[in-house]
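Fold sample X.
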Amino acid sequence: MGEGCYWNWYKTYIEHDRGINNYFGLYGTLFHETIEKLMKNELFEWDIKQEITTGMRNFEFKAPFPAMGKSYEESIHRFFDDGSYEQIFSQYKVLESEEEKIFDVGNVKVKGFPDLVANHDKYGFVIADYKTAKKYEGDKLDHNLMQLYLYSIPIKEKYGKYPDHLVYIFPREKGQKEFAYPFEIEKLERTKEWVIDTVAKIEQHTDWKPRCEMVDGKRDFFANQLCNSRCNCIYK
């Protein structure tokens, strides 16, 4: 959503202007939809290769660099061809997938679609998410995990308990692709505070400083090439 750019957040979630997509957004959607179809028996293993090839051929946007596009295409095929998909998902007993959740955090209304809620052979009751980026680490991991902590709110309401673990699956990683993080109630409370504080800052903010101007003295790649508001940002 343009982390650090309140203007893009305001456009997307207050004005409901989602702007335009990009190659990586389309790629992530294709991966999610392929998984969902497999789980619902709407797609079978012998159809996966053609499904992905056709899907990527019809992308409205191309990768920023040809070599990058080739790498991404090879990695998604590899995930389904080399046994990674079967090995990982054989451990899950699926309870729900991509179901809409609408819930409150303080006076903030939140909507989301958890990729997967399941019982895992090793990690117990989990909320899992598929990410086609590189594996998150450090501050980026802590920041992005807040999404799964938010999903734990409606999941607790439905199932009567919080998850044992929050799980990320990174299909483009070589080697280990599945990473589990123990659920901590303190981090959920900090996430709630962050949401309330962030929305308050956005609603009160008047001096917008968009991320696309400069980040550490350099033009920001995401904001200038991938941001969904990149073509209609009045501050750029």
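Fold sample Y, listed below.
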Amino acid sequence: MRFERSILFLFGAGVLMASRPAVSADLTCSSSATLEALVTCIRDQMPGRDSGIFVTPSSTQLSAWRGVVRAMMGGSCNIVLPSSLSSSARIRLLRDVDNGRRYCVLMEVGDRNSDGVVDLGLGTFIVDAAAERELAHSAPHATADLETEIQAVSIFKATRSRSFLMAGAHRDASFTDSACQSSTMISDVAHNVTNAFHATYLELAAFYGSKPWWAVQWHGMARDTCAEDVFASHGMDVAPVSGDKILELRRNLLADKPTWRVGVPGSSDCSLNATTNVQGRLLNLVSSSQVCGRSAASYSGRFVHIEQDPAFRLADYWINAVKATWP
């Protein structure tokens, strides 16, 4: 990898470190002074449903993305992006004006046709190098599961978690069926492996190894999908055992919100157990080469999959319970 000197930019209230100069077609969200504003801006310039905009990254790009994620998790942000990413993405340091904390942001910015939408659908990865909790929050169905991306980044920020990850396109942005799971489009990152979102999970799993950490995916369901308001699982349709994080989370949610209906496998007829979720399968110890077609035989507890009715997706409803579950 060839490294060049990074260039420092100042944008409004935030301090941004970028790997290359901006050009007119770059969608940098440079006026965003908080994480929530940044994620809102990025979401609004992502490829939307039926846009036909989603480009499967090359193996070179995925390897490069993983290398940048690895460096970010190691505490670095003054990084020059490899040439396979540098024309499409930007890495920078954002100081959030709400809390004064600094976050390293990797995001897609390239808009070569100047249509106000990024060209590839890579996604966004954010790291807090001074985190207090080894939690990886993610929003795989940003824009499709309304407000889950804002919920996830706000919980990441308020709980001082390690990382936040957001898909780069609507799950149905593409018109191409997936070769991983044929019932989905290639743009659905929770059910495909050739995308930057899944590559990030591969790198997170490699980074942590056997050290304790948890990946929390924030999803949304329709109001009448399940009898419960919230349904949490570890990616398998089996009842959790005593001490599992989804049981702790349910207990802490109900202590704060006693009227909520919170279900888990074994106590509910809800079928949203995330058994085909490829990141869940990966963290439940299915080989990375087999996550498309092979179900997990058991669960590790590292993967936490949360489905929510529309009215239950406010970050403030969840922050205390997340803090109590991962003290």
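Sample Y note: The chain has eight helices and eleven strands.
Also: Residues 7-325 form one domain.
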